[in-house]
Amino acid sequence: MASSIRPSLSSFRFSSARFAASLPPFSPSRRSSFLHLGSAVPQTQLFGLRASKLPRGNGNSITMAANGNVVQASTAAAPENVLEWVKKDKRRLLHVVYRVGDLDRTIKFYTECLGMKLLRKRDIPEERYTNAFLGYGPEDSHFVIELTYNYGVDQYDIGSGFGHFGIAVEDVAKTVELIKAKGGKVTREPGPVKGGKTVIAFIEDPDGYKFELLERGPTPEPLCQVMLRVGDLDRSINFYEKAFGMELLRKRDNPEYKYTVAMLGYGPEDKSAVLELTYNYGVTEYDKGNAYAQIAIGTDDVYKTAEAIKLVGGKVTREPGPLPGINTKITACLDPDGWKSVFVDNVDFVKELE
To answer: Is 40 helix (H, G, I), strand (E, B) or coil?
Structure first.
């Protein structure tokens, strides 16, 4: 899913079919660019060092670079042990990454209309992009948004696969009135959700990203949902439960409107950010566009995480290991529908924020 004194990571980007010449495939902030690398370059080439494995007494191995530094550790746990470990791993959603065409305009909308705080902003002129992090609390304890503006690019294709972000508010009607007063676009007026009682409304930000406003009491995590569409809901649920260690919080079928939704996450919906997966009857594929990028998730062990993903049939796009010059350990993968996630070592993530 990244400070000027550290080495540039731009040389490790992988190209996008449509935007290889001008756009980084994912937000490349120097502090957080470790969340946006792919696996087009083999691990040993990525680090630019010859490597050799040294056995350890417990059956694990360490990869040593030619200069003697440890650059990768790998586990040799039995498959069933790895999948059991996933259930116990300390995980949470860190942030969601996507691209916008006018960063200041988006920051103004999110802070004035949605009540978010600008947590930090970083411009990297030599690589022609700017990042901004916004949310309702500090990054070390809240799910936040990472926006990327690429110089000279003012428009993106959101596609049909991305759905919306969810924000919990205490009074949907008042929030909608505020958004209207600020010139915001309301696409669904406040009212009960179809087939339910929760009061909701839908709005669009300046780039066309949809936000669902959900009426709830006070919550520690107002930025509460990311909705993505999938082609086989049961397949996706199985993947996120086993490979990601998420819990299926609830599943609701709406035959009248021909769709089914599943909520998955690492804690209850009223206290944690969750992933909402939507299956529309008969639709098996979606256009993902080039606007939405990925979700970043914290983990205690990126190596075991990658093993679990492979065991469940997921595609690891960036093998686990530390990034050169930073030593933050990450791994990246695609789910069965091609949605990308990046796992980041919990301890390393906190160090990066510092």
So the answer is: coil
pTM for the full predicted model: 0.80
Which SS3 state, helix, strand or coil, does residue 149 take?
strand
Q: Which of 220, 202, 226 is nearest to 96 (CA)?
A: 226
Beta strands in the chain (DSSP E): 51-55, 61-65, 70-74, 92-99, 117-124, 129-135, 144-150, 162-169, 185-192, 199-204, 210-215, 223-229, 247-254, 259-265, 274-280, 292-299, 315-322, 329-334, 340-345
245 Cα distance to chain centroid? 15
Residues 6 or more apart in contact with residue 21 via CB below 8 angstroms:
none
**What is the bridge-based pairing of β-strands 210-215 and 162-169?**
parallel
- Dist CA 297 CA 93 (whole Å): 5
Query: What is the rounded CA–CA span in Å between residue 255 and residue 262?
Result: 14
Contact 192, 214 (CB under 8 A): no
Q: Which of 49-58, 187-196, 267-276, 294-303 has the lowest mean pLDDT?
A: 49-58
- Kindly list the strands in the beta sheet with 51-55, ordered across the sheet, starting from the edge strand earlier in the chain: 51-55, 61-65, 70-74
Average pLDDT over the chain, rounded to whole?
83
| Known catalytic residue at 170 | no
Structure tokens at 251: 């599943």
pLDDT-derived band at 194, boundaries 50, 70, 90:
confident
Which strands sit side by side in the sheet containing 92-99, from one edge to the other? 117-124, 129-135, 144-150, 92-99, 292-299, 340-345, 329-334, 315-322
Which three-class secondary structure state does DSSP give residue 71?
A: strand
What is d(CA 338, CA 225) in angstroms, rounded to the nearest whole number? 19
> Mind giving me the DSSP string for 213-275?
EEE-S--S-SEEEEEEE-S-HHHHHHHHHHTT--EEEEEEEETTTTEEEEEEESS-TTTS-EE
- Among the options 212, 269, 276, 352, which is catalytic? 212
